[in-house]
Amino acid sequence: MSSVFDLTPPEKLQLVEDLWDDLAANPEDVPVHDWQKQELERRNANLQANPATGLTWEDVKRKVRARHGR
After folding, report:
1. Does residue 36 sit in the same domain as residue 8?
2. What's the count of helices (H) and strands (E) in the chain, helices before strands?
3. Is the pTM of this model over 0.85?
4. Is the Cβ–Cβ distance between 32 and 43 less than 8 Å?
5. Which domain holds residue 13?
6. Tens of pLDDT along the chain (70 residues)?
């Protein structure tokens, strides 16, 4: 009997992608812990109080690509 640990790296990546897509199809079914909600509220409050500290999605992508050469 084989397991997911016997899959090749590309097969494992495909499995992870398939699982992620399945979860993303119904985000309301994904449990969110209280500590996660509190952290999101804290971060949102910080962003509202200091809007200049936020980054646009384009800025984030540019920084990641610059750091990782893509």
Report:
1. no
2. 3, 0
3. no
4. no
5. 1-30
6. 889 999 999 999 999 999 999 999 999 999 999 999 999 999 999 999 999 988 999 999 999 999 998 6
